[in-house]
Known about the structure:
Elements: E1 2-10, H1 20-29, E2 45-46, E3 52-56, H2 63-83, E4 87-89, H3 106-115, H4 117-120, E5 126-132, H5 136-146, H6 150-157, E6 162-163, E7 166-167, H7 173-178, H8 193-206, E8 219-221, E9 227-234, H9 239-261, H10 271-284, E10 289-292, E11 297-300, H11 301-319, H12 322-335, H13 338-362
Antiparallel strand pairs: 1-3, 1-4, 1-5, 2-3, 5-9, 6-7, 8-9, 10-11
Helix pairs in contact: 1-2, 2-9, 5-9, 6-10, 9-11, 9-12
Amino acid sequence: MGVEEEYLLVDAEGVPTGVADAAVRAYERGGGEPADEGEPGGGLEHELQEQQIETGTHPCVDLSELAAEVREGRRRAAGAAQQAGGRLVAVATSPVPGPTTLSRGARYEAMAQTYALTVREQLTSGCHVHVSVEDDDEGVAVLDGIGPWLPVLLALSANSPYWRGEDTGYASIRSQLWNRWPTAGPTAPFGSAQAYRDTVAGLVATGAALDPAMIYFDARLSPRYPTVEIRVADVCLRADDAVLVAALARGLVETAARQATQGVRPVLTRVEPLRAATWRAGRTGLAGDLLVPPMMKPVPARDAVAALLDHLRPALTDSGDLPMVQELVAGLWQRGTGADEQRAWALEGGLPGVIDHAVEATLA
Length: 364
């Protein structure tokens, strides 16, 4: 498994600042390894806007190794941001208003022309977890099996309560903004690898996606690596929460792959309740009810998380991840999600204070 994290870059006053290109160049001038399309992990990468930067871990098997890689990626990006005159902060949307500056490149320019305001206002940061699969057939069986559980991962990671200087009332407003893309969101079961490929090709043919890399499903087959890529989560405020999301994502993939091997058919959930479950998770995070399979009925968030852990217990036990996952879940319940922490800081020192605290928490 591996984790990609997108971060916001801010200036001394906490306003988003377009220094990503300068940060990447500073990192590479200092001897940092450029990001390699063929070999995941290491380096720094541009994102859609100059006010963002991305890191990725190398593929890991051990959860402790992954945790070290996540923290090292954050340190790497923070050091480069500092050299460029900015600060790194792991929040999924900016608490304060700020500009967006499109990153250079023909593809980004084509996106801006095609999607207009959606691109201009797209300053959101996510956490993407890659988990290896044997082939596309296993990958699609996994996608069909994990969909109803993905909103719980969104709720656990919720870290974007503010947008343009105001409290949106959502724990993850990023999930709302992200779903403005025509190819984003949950998907109904595909049934086969060929059906998945036909769906992707059809969306590209319509112009709703410029290329397969713009298939922004909550979980997809990665166009770059032999993995299932789970993309539903906000970037997590704290590294511990990113590790938790990754461990649960791997547990979901392993559980679904085992069930497919055993001939257990996935719950055939229509996309409408999946969209409702995703909205519910983004609206209240862990503070309200969540919808869980098989019935997709609302239950308290604690019960939903407990149900997810029960569903994953055999896989988490076999991987050795269960004790750490239980510890990380307990820590999350104690301090709250990133959205909870941001709101608490805002009460103390207003939105500029949120950024200062979040910069510290990003590297804690």
